[in-house]
Write a structure and sequence with these properties.
There is one protein chain. The protein is mainly alpha-helical. It has a single domain, classed as Arc Repressor Mutant, subunit A (Orthogonal Bundle), CATH 1.10.10.10. It contains 4 helices and 2 strands. Helix 1 crosses helix 2 and helix 1 crosses helix 4. The longest helix has 21 residues. The protein starts with 16 loop residues before the first helix and ends in an 11-residue tail after the last helix.
């Protein structure tokens, strides 16, 4: 549910910051070290100026790395970034299970 829509009812919801970080990391990961800012912007559904703030934070945290290719920066996910994604997806699964409520029980008539 990275796109911001709830699968249950299709309604839009505001993405949390952790969802946005995970989305950016997933998009960068898809390009195997050749992710340019515009591609990430389209993939994450964020304007470039807002995305730059997220990318700078991910670089500072060591979740992304950058290098110059043809005079322009390209981004790649680091092992620490992959660890973040693994943990993020595990936690999302737990939260979804907890948010689903108790399993329904069939009631028997007395």
């Amino acid at each position: 549910m990275l796109g911001g829509r709830s699968p249950e009812n299709g309604s839009a919801r505001r993405r949390e910051v952790t969802d946005l970080y995970a989305t950016v990391l997933e998009v960068v990961k898809r390009y195997h070290g050749a992710a340019r800012i515009t591609r990430v912007s389209y993939g994450a559904g964020m304007p470039v100026d807002r995305l730059r703030t997220f990318v700078e934070r991910l670089l500072a945290l060591g979740l992304l790395r950058t290098e110059e290719v043809d005079g322009r920066p390209v981004y790649d996910i680091t092992p620490r970034g992959q660890e973040f994604l693994d943990t993020y997806w595990k936690m999302r699964a737990y939260v979804e299970v907890l948010g689903a409520g108790p399993p329904s029980r069939a009631r028997r008539a007395p």
